[in-house]
């Protein structure tokens, strides 16, 4: 059973570090002023980038758990946590602990 928790954590590491480009890390924050060169509506770019990044996480959770509901919960949770980090309400370490806490929660709910 602990294999599920292991793979949830691996999925997080892959999605949050290996698959998240520098571009994505910068543009998922609504306060990034560089977005003005990318679009006539730069104030909306962050929504697409943050949502795409969160969907990658949700997809990883769904692949591991086999549950669309856990995948959707992860997508929403990841979006909210990363939004809070972008607003500077929380820092990097709190962000990571909340993400790992979500994985532990999904695992406990499966048990």
Describe the protein.
This protein is an all-alpha fold and about 110 residues long. Helices cover about 75% and strands about 0% of the residues. The protein contains five helices and no strands. The radius of gyration is 14 Å and the shape is elongated.
Largest sheet: none
Q: From N to C, what is the helix and strand string?
A: HHHHH
**Shape type:** elongated
Number of helices: 5
The low-confidence parts are none
**Rg (C-alpha, Å):** 14 Å
Spatial gap, N to C terminus:
8 Å
List keywords for this structure.
111 residues, mainly alpha, 5 helices, 74% helix, elongated
In short:
This protein has 111 residues and is mostly helical. The protein has five helices and no strands. The chain has helices spanning 2-18, 22-27, 45-65, 68-86, 92-110.
Chain-wise SSE layout:
Elements lengths: L1 H17 L3 H6 L17 H21 L2 H19 L5 H19 L1
Helix pairs in contact: 1-3, 1-5, 3-4, 4-5
């Amino acid at each position: 059973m602990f294999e599920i928790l292991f793979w949830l954590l691996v999925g997080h590491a892959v999605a949050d570090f290996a698959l998240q480009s520098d571009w994505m890390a910068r543009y998922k924050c609504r306060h990034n002023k560089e977005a003005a060169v990318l679009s006539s509506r730069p104030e909306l770019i962050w929504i697409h980038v943050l949502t795409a990044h969160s969907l990658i996480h949700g997809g990883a959770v769904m692949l591991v758990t086999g549950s669309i509901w856990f995948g959707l919960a992860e997508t929403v949770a990841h979006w909210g946590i990363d939004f809070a980090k972008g607003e500077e309400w929380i820092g990097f370490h709190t962000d990571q602990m909340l993400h790992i806490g979500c994985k532990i929660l999904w695992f406990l709910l499966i048990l």
